[in-house]
Write a structure and sequence with these properties.
It contains 3 helices and 30 strands. It has 451 residues and is mainly β.
């Protein structure tokens, strides 16, 4: 999540750079030819969306020295099949490491991020988290929490055991796991490192993978997760894919999202639909892409942010982008950044792809089902805002990460749970940057979409 910044017509994205050959080809292949995609038509306008309120919230995290430099980012929901009411939420806190919460949003464990390898090197910084279920390890099958350590450019793995003394998570990262993207510690310190994350288990082979995006780049890497000695877990890179960094507009011109020199439009929010092995990737200043999770297909742009195609000039003094006139090529449902993506599974392939529209504090829902053609399907089904229940229990603003689980979770959440990050946790948010997570009744959210 970006630091708080003044309101503006379009948030700064990242600048033009020489496109890689594959990215250029994909830009031509995926270049939009209409003012608004079919998937963005119909449903509520964002200003008239229904609202839901959270049931509970975690204690505020503070991104300062006194607060341990903890900054809420991304959640994942682990279901305890033996006792669903004792399920857990695992969440990242950046330099503050990992937090584990029960369904009452009470903290049950905190794990620190590792330090850097030497003085002056970047310390650990946990960005995104996802789960792998029943992976075969040398010590037997286990559920795992997988984390991108942006500070060290690595993945870290935590075995989940609800009743383990000392806390349910145990670090089982193989000691010699390599950097995901960087060739040297100097590159790691530059922080073009592992960022967004989605896990995927191939039903045909039973092999598990992580899809990892690179900060300030358009690259996504497919990593196979590998059982290592002593019950630990490592990985190897299978292949990479570069999304476009510039786009052909309907008027024949080329557009590149504006931003700091040398930075391309990055991806953070990602999710794989387990029903068909489709990866959805949120390119923050562009929109939502769809591609095979094994990264062997051409990406298709499912929907665009409103700011898509808006010309802008970066001002180094203000570190902001001054936006020009909107040519009208953007979508109608997402305001940059497009962030946390999650699947709401209603069985038999039905359900929703949910996206956090960070720029206007809303959540957009698309039909999970694909059509027969490569650009068909994913119709917009509606959206919601998550607003305050009381002065003490506020809503969600500038939401970064989100996770949904549409299964019964005891008597508190019998119709499932939605967890969303809150970028401005009130009433705590003041001189100190306060963030946290809101726990929402998923059934109430789905009811609002049906109204």
């Amino acid at each position: 999540m970006h630091p708080r910044r003044p309101a503006r017509p379009a948030r700064p994205a990242r600048p033009a750079a020489a496109a890689l050959a594959l990215a250029s080809a994909l830009a031509v292949l995926a270049g939009p030819t209409a003012a608004a995609p079919a998937s963005a038509l119909g449903g509520h306008e964002s200003g008239r969306l229904p609202t839901v309120t959270p049931v509970a919230e975690t204690a505020a995290l503070f991104d300062d020295e006194r607060g341990g430099n903890a900054n809420a980012d991304d959640p994942a929901i682990w279901r305890n099949d033996a006792d669903p009411g004792r399920s857990l939420v695992v969440a990242t806190a950046k330099k503050g490491g990992l937090r584990v919460y029960d369904l009452g949003a009470r903290q049950v464990q905190a794990l620190p991020a590792p330090g850097g390898p030497g003085p002056g090197d970047s310390p650990g910084r946990f960005n995104n988290v996802d789960l792998v279920h029943r992976m075969r390890l040398s010590a037997g099958r286990a559920d795992l929490a997988v984390v991108t350590d942006r500070g060290n450019d690595r993945l870290r793995f935590y075995r989940i055991d609800r009743d383990r003394p000392g806390g349910p998570l145990t670090d089982v990262t193989a000691p010699a796991v390599p950097p995901v993207f960087s060739a040297s510690q100097g590159e790691i310190n530059d922080q073009r490192t592992a960022y967004g994350l989605a896990t995927w288990t191939d039903r045909a082979t039973g092999r598990s993978y992580a899809l990892v995006s690179r900060r300030h780049e358009t690259r996504i890497a497919l990593l196979e997760l590998i059982a290592a000695p002593g019950g630990t877990v490592g990985y190897r890179v299978v292949r990479t894919l570069d999304l476009p960094s510039s786009f052909r507009l309907p008027n024949g011109s080329s557009w590149t999202p504006c931003g700091e020199p040398g930075e391309r439009p990055q991806v953070e929010g990602m999710v794989v639909d387990p029903a068909d092995g489709t990866l959805y990737a949120g390119q923050e200043d562009v929109g939502i892409w769809r591609v095979r999770a094994d990264l062997t297909s051409a990406p298709v742009l499912v929907d665009r942010v409103r700011e898509y195609g808006v010309p802008a000039v970066y001002d180094a003094d203000t570190e902001e982008c001054a936006a020009g006139a909107d040519p009208g090529y953007g979508g109608r449902r997402l305001s940059a950044d497009v962030e946390g993506l999650t699947i709401v599974d209603e069985g038999h392939g039905d359900g929703y792809l949910m996206a956090s529209s960070q720029g206007d504090n809303t959540f957009a829902f698309y039909d999970r089902q694909r059509g027969r053609g490569p650009e068909d399907g994913h119709a917009y089904e509606g959206g919601v805002r998550i607003t305050a229940r009381s002065r003490e229990l506020d809503g969600s603003e500038e939401c970064d990460g989100a996770a949904a689980l549409n299964r019964p979770l005891g008597r508190v959440f019998p119709r499932g749970l939605l967890v969303v990050q809150d970028g401005h946790d009130g009433p705590e948010d003041g001189p100190r940057t306060a963030t946290g997570f809101k726990f929402v009744d998923l059934g109430e959210v789905l009811d609002s979409l049906d109204d």
